[in-house]
Design brief:
The protein is α/β, with parallel strands linked by helices and 218 residues long. It has a single domain, classed as Rossmann fold, CATH 3.40.50.150. Helix content is 30%, strand content 26%. The protein contains six helices and nine strands. The protein has a seven-stranded mixed sheet with strand order 5-4-3-6-7-8-9. Helix 4 links the parallel strand 3 and strand 4. The longest helix is centred in the N-terminal third of the chain and has 17 residues. Bound molecules: S-adenosyl-L-homocysteine (SAH).
Amino acid sequence: MKTRQGIGMTSQRTRNRMIDRLMEQGISNHSVLNIMRDMPRHLFMDDALSSRAYEDVALPIGYNQTISQPYIVARMTELLVDHGVTGRVLEIGTGCGYQAAVLAQTVDQVYSVERISPLQKKASKLLMDLSIRNIKYLHSDGGWGWPDFAPYEGVLVSAAPTEIPKVLLQQMQVGAAMIIPVGPQGGQQLQKVVKTATGFDIEDIEAVSFVPFVPGKQ
Ligand code: SAH
């Protein structure tokens, strides 16, 4: 595991403060809070930013992308866990891998799709170093989902399309939940979409601000 001299104690204390803040913000699932208390978020960003790793802000991870703020990671994970998702989850937008790492501690298997190859390679290496092995990676446009392992019990999308990609809906099993930010920059809603026997139930959760969902891969 990657370590940095001198950061151990400090980061545990700042992580505890982050967890207190998440509880104040309304995160109540103890399993999610405990996972985030243990996850070394500072390892997911460049050294220059690691001192800010436990602030509740989105920080740059290169290629014009950001690591989602802790509150958003907690909220999205909690929505899936509270829905009862324990099995196979499709994640769109591996990014630096932090969300995937948190998710992988609470479900059997994460299938993570990312369009920017170097970001995904860096994430998968770090997660192997952290001995988190129940994640499979695919370099692809997430608009195609990952048909090989469908249907999924949960889908978590961490970039915002203007509308929900139909293919992702098709790759859900009945009873599955998708957590997805939808809408234009400046007007996105986090939505929870549940697949029923006859269609989909959509619930607005809260206003959010994600990087856009971009078609194609690079
Ligand atoms: N969950 C990530 C958040 C990363 S930001 C984390 O914890 O760091 C969103 C990510 O979605 C970016 O890495 C971006 O490249 C990716 N993305 C955007 N559009 C995509 C698409 N169509 N397919 C796959 N990944 C996409």
